[in-house]
Design brief:
Helix content is 1%, strand content 20%. By secondary structure, it is an all-beta fold. Helix 1 links the parallel strand 39 and strand 40. The N terminus is likely disordered.
Length: 557
């Protein structure tokens, strides 16, 4: 089936049927006398609601149970060979007809032409032409008011579509998976477009949306991998979730003034997207809206913005600088994760939360000013920000979470607030340039690898209140020569000081010898003295594990 011309005639355009089968003229669609020009009811005086299918002679057709083919209604379930070229499908029942059913899909290749000139409803039934894979072009007749749900889905040969100005709505998935669709005319009479409309139309390069729609629906143009340009109307208020997701060739999007919401995954994985213009009316950007837009470089967040969703700019590798608007108070998880070119972020003091991985793998990021009113900073918030040189944590922070500054290899100084109650596992792991560190009182446990691989530290004092040093807490601090533990120490777990090659002096103020973990001083060849309280010298020399270093145990001066 190469052509599907869904056409009608006005009352003054009487004609004969194109095959000359009838000698009398047909009436077609005419205007009812009681209707005005703007609200027409179309009907046919002779044979209302009828679709004519032209088939090749000799076509084998299975009449399915429940279908009502008017001239074959007594032979349901039988296979018959058509001897005439015309078979009439009567749509007077409410059954959801399809020309291409699963049971009879092979018959669609034998359909030469479909004519709706005797069809008088304003709406064509759902899925009527779904999977008619030989349709190449569609002209929908004036009088039809809605292109219904899944109307032409998977019509994989469909190239051209013309929609008349009588249409006001386009149903969900109506042209989805039309992988050959290139030319599409949508009139401004359309005010509503439903979800998945042009999903996976992989040949569609450009589209102009009608001027009266206020929202782009879910997955409207998702996976249109050839789409290069989209013209968005000024009437838009909301951009729905996944609208342009996976449109690999889309390089620029200009969201018009009036848009207040950009939904989730709107432009995610648009690998060629370079520039986005956001309107001054924008208030919210959804989760992962621009996730993995590797080439996105030019973007300015408007002052009107109050919310930026999770992973919104995740892996936008070309963004170099960003200014956070004053109305945004939370920077959610993975917000700028993997922004490998981001060197400058301007915060404001209204920000209270930085989520986990918010700035991880932002390699050039340096000299940031942490907001003064910050109360929460998530795990790996600045993971592997390898150009970060100094950080001043505000007093509202009480926990330094797991791996917050892991692999910040250029970090030379960090100021921790006095009310910190927890420093998480690997929080300062591999901060190779860190030269000084003052730990506040208030926490009780040194977590695994918490300050390990900090090569530039030369001395460190652990505050009173700490009772436990966990596995490899100071592993491979190769420049450390002196470390002091408080009187509250009760337990050293395995390999706490392993690899501290320059460690010469180990001071512990606990009167009772703490539990001695395996490999506590493994690979500490420079260790010369273990200083303990004078009255406890003999206790340490007799205690399990400590006795192996009895010759190095001396009294604190």
């Amino acid at each position: 089936m190469k052509n599907l011309r869904l056409h009608n005639t006005n009352a003054d355009q009487l004609d004969y049927r194109r095959d000359g089968r009838y000698s009398e003229p047909y009436v077609g669609f005419i205007k009812a006398e009681n209707e005005d020009e703007d609200n027409q009811t179309f009907y046919n005086k002779k044979t209302p609601n009828r679709i004519t299918i032209y088939l090749k002679e000799g076509t084998t057709l299975t009449i399915l149970k429940g279908r009502n083919y008017s001239d074959l209604s007594q032979r349901k379930g039988e296979e018959i060979v058509l001897t005439e070229r015309v078979n009439v499908l009567d749509l007077d029942t409410d059954y959801p007809y399809r020309f291409n059913t699963k049971e009879g899909k092979d018959n669609t290749s034998n359909i030469e032409f479909i004519d709706l000139y005797e069809y008088t409803y304003r709406v064509i039934p759902n899925k009527l032409f779904s999977e008619c894979t030989s349709i190449e072009s569609v002209v929908i007749p004036y009088g039809i008011t809605s292109v219904n749900w899944n109307q032409f889905e998977k019509c994989t040969s469909l190239v051209d579509v013309v929609i008349p100005e009588s249409v006001t709505s386009i149903g969900g998935g109506s042209f989805s998976y039309c992988t050959s669709l290139k030319n599409l005319m949508i009139p401004d009479s359309v005010t509503e477009i439903s979800s998945y409309t042009w999903l996976k139309c992989t040949s569609l390069k450009h589209i102009k949306l009608p001027s009266k729609i206020t929202e782009t629906p879910l997955y409207m143009l998702a996976d249109c991998t050839a789409l290069e340009y989209v013209d968005l109307p000024k009437s838009l208020v909301k951009i729905g979730n996944h609208t342009f997701a996976n449109c690999y060739k889309l390089k620029e999007v200009d969201f018009p003034e009036g848009v207040t919401t950009i939904g989730q995954y709107v432009c995610s994985d648009n690998r060629e997207l370079e520039k986005v213009k956001l309107p001054s009316t924008l208030r919210e950007i959804g989760d992962s809206a621009f996730n993995t837009c590797h080439k996105l470089k030019d973007i300015e967040l408007p002052p009107s913005l109050t919310k930026i969703g999770v992973a919104c700019f995740n892996s936008c590798k070309k963004i170099q600088s960003i200014v956070i608007p004053s109305g945004v108070t939370e920077l959610h998880a993975h917000l700028f994760n993997g922004c490998e070119s981001l060197s400058s972020v301007t915060f404001h003091d209204n920000i209270t939360k930085i989520g986990q991985n918010a700035f991880s793998f932002c390699f050039p990021l340096n000299n940031i000013r942490i907001p003064r009113n910050l109360t929460e900073m998530g795990e790996r918030a600045f993971y592997q920000c390898s150009s970060l040189t100094s950080v001043d944590i505000p007093n509202g922070i009480t926990k330094i979470e797991k791996e917050t500054f892991t692999n910040c290899t250029a970090l030379t100084s960090i100021t921790l607030p006095s009310n910190v109650t927890k420093i998480g596992e690997r929080a300062l792991f591999n901060c190779k340039a860190l030269k000084e560190l003052t730990l506040p009182q208030g926490f009780t446990t040194l977590e695994p690898y918490v300050i390990s691989n900090c090569h530039s530290l030369t001395s460190l004092t652990i505050p009173e209140g700490v009772t436990t040093a966990k596995y490899r807490a100071f592993d491979s601090c190769t420049g450390l020569n002196t470390i002091t533990f408080p009187s509250t120490m009760e337990r050293f777990e395995g390999y706490v000081m392993d690899g501290c090659q320059k460690l010469t002096t180990f001071i512990i103020n606990a009167v009772e010898p703490p539990t001695f973990g395996d490999g506590l001083f493994r690979n500490c060849p420079a260790l010369t003295e273990i200083k303990v309280p004078r009255r406890s010298v003999q206790k340490y020399k007799d205690a399990n594990g400590w006795r192996n270093y009895a010759s190095k145990i001396v009294a604190i001066d």
